[in-house]
Amino acid sequence: MTDFQFMQKAQPTVALFVSDLHLQAALPRTTQAFLSFLQSHAVWTQQLYLLGDVFEYWAGDDDRTAPYNQLIADALRTVQAQGVQLYWMAGNRDFLVGQAFADAAGLTLLDDPHVITAAGRTLALAHGDAQCTDDHAYMAFRAQVRQPAYQQQFLAMPLAQRKAIIEGIRKNSQDANQSKDMAIMDVNAGAIDALFAQTGTDILIHGHTHRPALHRLDGGKLRYVLPDWEYDVETPRGGWISLTADGALHRHDVNGDEIA
């Protein structure tokens, strides 16, 4: 019995939080791990929060009927049909997900950041990229592509052209990141303080950085960082965070076991 299954007997799970799966057809083991997570864990919770970069990229909702994208949408819809509330927050890879995909998958789209109250806890949720303010090149790019006019112009292009552009952006990003100081690709402490002030909370859950941890900050504030998923490697990684009915937050590793 995993720690998660034991907790299910002791305390019902109110919410699960996951991000940075980077799902794509080229990663079949990661895909299967996510589908297994939905079937074995997500169906037992009340709410599932997908906090960005669920897909490796998203070229537009007109690509939602592609076989792989339809597979993921159907799997999410199956969970939603069993009474689980599904929530989706855009990441830096899949911010073009729109209402058509949300309807197909049974999702409610959330703004970033978003505040929830559950199990007696008030939590701030974010993807995390907006707080990486030391990476000036990325922040300028983010400001551009999040503009509605830019997105409207981009989505008016043929799907094949959009995918080619995205592939070029991904390649340039990978090349640029190799020469960047790792520190500037992490969140900025001042940006995190501002987010706590903006949301009026003392607990934050986010992803994006691929640096899973629990940070205990001044004033008793807690910053939980979600892991990224990668099962198509020799040493798989992944995991999630759960909130149980007693108000406790638990970090889970790639096997679903609780991290002390």
TrEMBL record:
Keywords of the record, alphabetical order, are: Cell inner membrane, Cell membrane, Hydrolase, Lipid A biosynthesis, Lipid biosynthesis, Lipid metabolism, Manganese, Membrane, Metal-binding
Q: In which pathway does it act?
A: Glycolipid biosynthesis; lipid IV(A) biosynthesis; lipid IV(A) from (3R)-3-hydroxytetradecanoyl-[acyl-carrier-protein] and UDP-N-acetyl-alpha-D-glucosamine: step 4/6
- Give one Pfam hit by family name: Metallophos
| GO MF annotation list | manganese ion binding; UDP-2,3-diacylglucosamine hydrolase activity
The cofactor named in the record is: Mn(2+)
The entry marks the following residues as binding Mn(2+) 2, namely 53, 92, 127, 208
Topology in the lipid bilayer is annotated as:
Peripheral membrane protein
**Co-factor remark:** Binds 2 Mn(2+) ions per subunit in a binuclear metal center.
Q: Which PANTHER family match?
A: UDP-2,3-DIACYLGLUCOSAMINE HYDROLASE (PTHR34990:SF1), UDP-2,3-DIACYLGLUCOSAMINE HYDROLASE-RELATED (PTHR34990)
Q: Which family does it belong to?
A: Belongs to the LpxH family.
What's this protein's name? UDP-2,3-diacylglucosamine hydrolase
- Which organism encodes this protein? Herbaspirillum aquaticum
- Lineage, uppermost ranks: Bacteria, Pseudomonadati, Pseudomonadota, Betaproteobacteria, Burkholderiales
